[in-house]
Design brief:
Layout: E1 7-10, E2 13-16, H1 20-26, E3 34-39, E4 42-47, H2 55-59, H3 71-78
Antiparallel strand pairs: 1-2, 3-4
Length: about 90
């Protein structure tokens, strides 16, 4: 069901009010950072992903020698199933 809202003026800016049901759907609140993009003529709003928890950021300070596969890792990766693994 569409929800209507109006664009308002605040100083030199335009403000779009986000209705509470939309905030709830987005799991967002006042202070949440969102990204706005135009896709096929539609405005798409997404919550900004906390990039502090990406795999790259988590591994950034890891010593490179700890990120290489050991012989045991390689054996495990190439082992045949011993049960009903998929």
């Amino acid at each position: 069901m569409p929800i209507e809202t109006k664009i308002r003026k605040s100083g030199a800016s335009a403000i779009l009010t986000i209705p509470k049901p939309v905030l709830n759907y987005m799991n967002a609140k006042v202070g949440t950072t969102i990204s706005i993009d135009m896709v096929d003529g539609l405005m798409v709003c997404k919550k900004k992903v906390d990039d502090s928890m990406t795999l790259e950021s988590l591994l950034a300070d890891s010593p490179r020698d700890r990120l290489t596969l050991t012989e045991e890792d390689k054996e495990w990766l190439h082992a045949e199933p011993v049960g009903q693994e998929i």
